[in-house]
């Protein structure tokens, strides 16, 4: 090889440096998510009202034109991607049905599908830019975590100019300086603006405006006020007006959605020849009692046909409706604040704070009665709204609609009920507390009053709680009980283990073992968890009891009660089921099993899964050897001792008609305890001679 000149070495050195930089990579760049390659040419912003700086309708500018995103197939994963595009660390939620108001212009994206890990929304699947069959009533929004990405460069994020908007409303009593009962139902309307609380000019004020105000404050309706009295009172007081020209239609869920005008800073003459707006609201009976108002004679109302299930707080839950004597859910297609507000007011609350989709309050079970509900907001019942009767292929329970309603402020949260180490407790102030679950505070529950039975017994009998935002909700598949019920005469020599676990009637103790048999009513029970948290045994694995005979652990003493009752409720036979194995037998399509009993595994029932006790396993029966022929009620109760918290205990009992002729048994008309309407319960079938409990 010939000599190499210095010039040639410099060329080789330069080439070597370039190769090294390609192989080893350039120095680590800043983690700031500046304009990413995938997002070049796009700009993002949050718009709409009422909202906070980290939430709103998502708008994208493409090719110089601003547009929105349709909520079809929108998920939290897509919200994560968009929040990062906007400079936030992650999303905490998302909204549908134009919660922040409808946008204008193009709908850029539809059927957006993201995994949540994409660096840009352009990496997500969709129908393509500008290809959509939606309207702006379906505009999607996001709620981002109020935490910015470190070093984020917002060159591709445009913040919509923050116009004045009404964030909060209250009623200030105009008379009575002393302590007034809560909630406040009448007073001057005040709105919170950036510089403080201001009053609203009443010129042009209408009942529609009052209806919206009352809805925001948690009241279902409004009533007329003595305007002349308040005008006279206003002449003696100073006022600070910030708002005028309010003109609501009456169907708005928030005052910001009404037509209104703000006074400018240089407006000197405010509300000429007018006064402060005054509103009087009508509370539902529950809140009327807490405000000290006289209970009005309520008009006889028809049967309740709408209810909320699965919520952790009053006024929230999965919407269920009653049709043909059966409760079912509502599909979230086209579900919006107007429909949600109709539900809330129908149940005695105010307007809706949120219209929830995607089974946010847990998946229901059974029928889905309604879809594409379109309310104007003026209807007195959800059933009065135009809707589509659903077919099996139209919707699934993963699309169950829910609501969060506005509730009156009662001040209950200021009475703190403390739970602490009771070693220093010197006095017990309540005993005999019995609540139905709908009370607003312990004061409203039945209790012993001033006569406390364990006033000075130390800490041994002091009560405590552990609170949770979510809970399980168990429901028995009643149709399966009816389909699988049958009688078996089982030889005694096959029942030793069952006798050891107390699964036979007391008369079995005096039987001629191992000869003879016991007559058993067998059936399968399939128990679903429809709640928002897994159902777990109260006791940890360290305290489970091993049963040698059956070779398994019991994680709960009693998991279900099985009873045979006479028509008047007298128990003639009973059985019980210790939860020797709580596990996920099967799950819904999009849910994975988490609990399995094998190898001393964790026990429980995952949300969206069910545990199946087959009819052919030990103790899955009622011993009816001593039951005489007649007409009875078969009753099954899950979690009968309330050992594990559930969001709803009213659906834990199932009842069936039961006819036994001494040889065969007929079980039918099985239904969950409150699943039938009052009329259907009145028609709960009676066989001839049922009152005397004898076969005629």
Please outline the helices and strands.
Layout: H1 6-24, E1 42-47, E2 55-62, E3 65-69, H2 76-85, E4 91-95, E5 106-109, E6 141-144, E7 168-172, E8 186-193, E9 196-200, H3 207-216, E10 221-223, H4 227-234, E11 241-247, E12 259-262, E13 278-282, H5 285-290, E14 306-309, E15 316-323, E16 326-330, H6 337-346, E17 352-356, E18 368-371, E19 388-389, E20 402-405, E21 474-476, H7 478-484, E22 486-491, H8 496-500, E23 517-522, E24 525-529, E25 545-547, E26 552-554, E27 560-565, E28 571-577, E29 586-587, E30 609-613, E31 621-623, E32 630-638, E33 653-660, E34 665-672, H9 678-682
Parallel strand pairs: 3-5, 9-11, 16-18
Antiparallel strand pairs: 1-2, 2-3, 2-6, 4-6, 7-8, 8-9, 8-13, 10-13, 11-12, 14-15, 15-16, 15-20, 17-20, 18-19, 21-24, 22-23, 23-31, 24-30, 25-26, 27-28, 27-32, 29-30, 32-33, 33-34
């Amino acid at each position: 090889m010939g000599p190499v000149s210095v010039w040639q070495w410099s060329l080789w050195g330069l080439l070597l440096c370039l190769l090294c930089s390609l192989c080893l990579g350039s120095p680590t760049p800043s983690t700031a998510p500046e304009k990413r390659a995938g997002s070049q040419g796009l700009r993002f912003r949050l718009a709409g009202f009422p909202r906070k700086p980290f939430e709103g309708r998502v708008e994208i500018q493409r090719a110089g034109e601003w547009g929105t995103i349709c909520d079809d197939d929108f998920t939290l994963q897509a919200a994560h991607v968009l929040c990062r595009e906007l400079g936030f660390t992650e999303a905490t939620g998302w909204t549908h049905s134009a919660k922040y108001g409808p946008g204008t212009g193009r709908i850029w994206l539809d059927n957006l599908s993201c995994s949540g890990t994409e660096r840009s929304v352009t990496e997500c699947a969709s129908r393509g830019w500008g290809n959509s069959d939606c309207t702006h009533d379906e505009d999607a929004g996001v709620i981002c975590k109020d935490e910015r990405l470190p070093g984020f460069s917002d060159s591709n994020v445009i913040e919509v100019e923050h116009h004045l908007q009404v964030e909060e409303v209250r009623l200030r009593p105009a008379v009575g300086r002393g302590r007034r009962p809560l909630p406040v139902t009448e007073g001057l309307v005040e709105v919170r603006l950036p510089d403080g609380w201001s009053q609203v000019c009443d010129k042009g004020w209408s009942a529609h405006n009052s209806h919206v105000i009352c809805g925001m404050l948690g009241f279902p309706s409004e009533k007329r006020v003595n305007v002349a009295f308040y005008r006279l009172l206003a002449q003696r007081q100073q006022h600070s007006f910030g708002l005028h020209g309010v003109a609501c239609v009456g169907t708005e869920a928030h005052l910001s959605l009404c037509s209104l005008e703000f006074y400018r800073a240089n407006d000197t003459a405010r509300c000429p020849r007018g006064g402060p707006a005054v509103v009087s609201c009508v509370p539902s009976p529950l809140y009327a009692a807490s405000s000290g108002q006289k209970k009005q004679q309520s008009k006889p109302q028809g049967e309740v046909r709408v209810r909320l299930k699965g919520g952790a707080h009053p006024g929230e839950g999965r919407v269920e409706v009653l049709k043909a004597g059966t409760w079912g859910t509502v599909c979230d297609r086209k579900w919006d604040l107007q429909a949600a507000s109709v539900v809330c007011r129908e149940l005695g609350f105010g307007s809706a704070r949120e219209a929830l989709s995607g089974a946010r309050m847990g998946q229901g079970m059974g029928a889905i009665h309604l879809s594409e509900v379109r309310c104007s907001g003026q209807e007195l019942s959800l059933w009065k709204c135009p809707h589509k009767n659903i077919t099996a292929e139209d919707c699934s329970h993963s699309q169950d609609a829910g609501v969060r309603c506005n509730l009156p402020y009662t001040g209950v949260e200021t009475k703190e009920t403390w739970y602490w180490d009771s070693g220093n407790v010197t006095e017990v102030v309540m005993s005999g507390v019995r609540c139905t679950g709908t009370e607003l505070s312990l004061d409203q529950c039945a209790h012993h009053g001033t006569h406390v039975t364990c006033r000075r017994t130390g800490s041994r009998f002091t009560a405590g709680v552990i609170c949770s935002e979510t809970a399980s909700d168990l429901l028995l598949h009643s149709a399966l009980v009816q389909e699988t019920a049958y009688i078996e005469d089982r030889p005694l020599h096959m029942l030793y283990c069952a006798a050891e676990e107390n699964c036979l009637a007391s008369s079995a103790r005096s039987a001629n073992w191992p000869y003879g048999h016991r007559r058993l009513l067998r059936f399968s029970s399939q128990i679903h968890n429809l709640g928002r948290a897994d159902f777990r045994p109260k006791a940890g694995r360290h305290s489970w009891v091993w049963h040698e005979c059956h070779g398994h652990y019991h994680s709960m003493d009693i998991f279900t009660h099985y009873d045979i009752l006479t028509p008047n409720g007298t128990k003639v036979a009973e059985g019980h089921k210790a939860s020797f194995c709580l596990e996920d037998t099967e799950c819904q399509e999009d849910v994975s099993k988490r609990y399995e009993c094998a190898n001393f595994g964790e026990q429980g029932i995952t949300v969206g899964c069910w545990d199946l006790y087959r009819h052919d396993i030990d103790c899955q029966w009622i011993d009816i050897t001593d039951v005489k022929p007649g007409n009875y009620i078969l009753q099954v109760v899950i979690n009968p001792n309330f050992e594990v918290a559930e969001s709803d205990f009213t659906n834990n009992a199932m009842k069936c008609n039961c006819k036994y002729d001494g040889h065969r048994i007929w079980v039918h008309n099985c239904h969950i305890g409150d699943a039938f309407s009052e009329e259907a319960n009145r028609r709960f079938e009676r066989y001839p001679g049922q009152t005397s409990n004898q076969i005629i």
